[in-house]
Task: inverse folding
């Protein structure tokens, strides 16, 4: 088998730096640390990127994918809008605010970015089935991508997920298995399945393909910088589930600086969690380096990971960049969803309520610089979490006969 991962040349251990050949492995044999893709980048120019397609593949020379990835059937996610949020900014007193709106991806969440990497890895390794443990959005992204790529899909979720996320995963075909347990239990189950003959030739996008999968989040960093005019933002607010997305956005910014694609200007990274699942925020506030697992209880189900694998790295990044980690309650999440919708016309899922809620909290407590250019992420679509709105919200404000008199009487 000859592997083609483009500029990625090896896997390296994040803890001890040991290097391994590219393969479907995810843990260091020396120290059990997580493996990540290591690159040998050639020359990469802005002009070369700008002449690429309006999706994540414009950055393919920075990703673990073959150059001919653009000719293969896949979901082509990315290049989502960076919305100048003047109304929300004015309301909160932030001079220059943007929303990076990843609900615009093919299956309406940021997960299409990471799954696109995993599909290429599955092709490289000759896997016939794409699988995952999911908090909801990943399941739909995997079944859709598998359908397009001609792979089988079998995905695992906690059984109590939002109806829309279940439907979103089922409509593309494949098998969707609900597990009676939390996400962390689903994830542990998948780790067992990998070692079993039943899971042979299966690519678990966020387990044995994780080193490739995770790199997809770097494209958020590349897009934000390019859309700002090849500049890094000064402050960015990112949701935390496993913490992978946050750590890879930091990696993406650093690569852009190293390759001379942007100036080396300081940026602060802030992580956002729901209070009902806030192990990283709790560790940050307590000044700890390790994250104590929790049992999640929040409406922000897409972020409900009680034992986040990248938690300690998130703490490092928040502290190194001068950012922080904060959490908001379920009520604050719904209020923030309404605030974003009513000021900017963006209907975010609960995860977007978490980031906008944290944005508001950090601003009001003086921890964000209102003069600094700020980006807040919305990573999913509000139509997937309709159940958190009140019954009243899913009905018209009034139902009347089609007559002017009837309308006059209601206004
Ligand atoms: C998965 C997910 C995230 C981030 O997940 P990480 O595990 O931290 O990378 C953020 N928002 C939504 C909506 C998600 O589904
Ligand atoms: Zn190691």
Result:
């Amino acid at each position: 088998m000859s592997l083609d991962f483009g500029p990625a040349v090896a896997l390296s251990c994040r803890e001890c730096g040991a290097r391994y050949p590219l393969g479907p492995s995810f843990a260091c044999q020396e120290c059990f640390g997580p493996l990540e893709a290591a690159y040998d980048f050639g020359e990469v120019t802005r002009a070369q990127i700008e002449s690429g397609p309006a999706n994540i593949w414009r950055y393919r020379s920075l990703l673990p994918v073959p150059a001919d990835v653009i000719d293969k059937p896949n979901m082509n996610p990315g290049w989502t809008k960076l919305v100048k949020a003047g109304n929300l900014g004015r309301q909160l007193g932030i001079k220059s605010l943007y929303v990076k709106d990843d609900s615009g991806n093919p299956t309406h969440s940021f997960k299409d970015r990471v799954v696109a990497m995993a599909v290429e890895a599955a092709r490289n390794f000759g896997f016939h089935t794409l699988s995952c443990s999911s908090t909801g959005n990943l399941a739909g992204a995997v079944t859709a991508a598998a359908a397009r790529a001609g792979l089988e899909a079998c995905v695992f979720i906690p059984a109590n997920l939002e109806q829309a996320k279940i439907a979103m995963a089922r409509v593309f075909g494949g098998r969707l298995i609900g597990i009676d347990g939390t996400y962390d239990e689903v994830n542990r189950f998948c780790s067992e399945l990998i070692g079993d003959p039943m899971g042979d030739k299966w690519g678990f996008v966020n387990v044995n393909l994780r080193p490739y999968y995770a790199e997809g989040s770097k494209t958020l960093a590349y897009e934000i910088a390019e859309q700002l005019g090849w500049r890094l933002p000064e402050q960015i607010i990112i949701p935390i589930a496993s913490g992978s997305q946050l750590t890879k956005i930091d990696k993406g910014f650093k690569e852009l600086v190293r390759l001379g694609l942007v100036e080396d200007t300081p940026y602060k990274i802030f992580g956002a969690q729901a209070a009902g699942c806030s192990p990283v925020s709790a560790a940050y506030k307590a000044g700890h380096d390790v994250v104590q697992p929790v049992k999640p209880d929040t409406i922000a189900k897409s972020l409900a990971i009680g034992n986040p694998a990248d938690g300690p790295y998130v703490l490092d990044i928040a502290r190194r960049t001068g950012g922080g980690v904060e959490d908001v309650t379920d009520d604050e999440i719904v209020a923030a969803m309404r605030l974003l919708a009513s000021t900017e016309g963006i209907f975010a899922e609960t995860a977007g309520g978490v980031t906008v809620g944290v944005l508001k909290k950090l601003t009001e407590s003086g921890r964000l610089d209102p003069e600094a250019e700020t980006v807040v992420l919305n990573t999913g679509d509000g139509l997937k979490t309709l159940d958190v709105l009140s019954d009243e919200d899913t009905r018209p404000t009034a139902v009347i006969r089609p007559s002017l008199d009837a309308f006059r009487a209601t206004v």
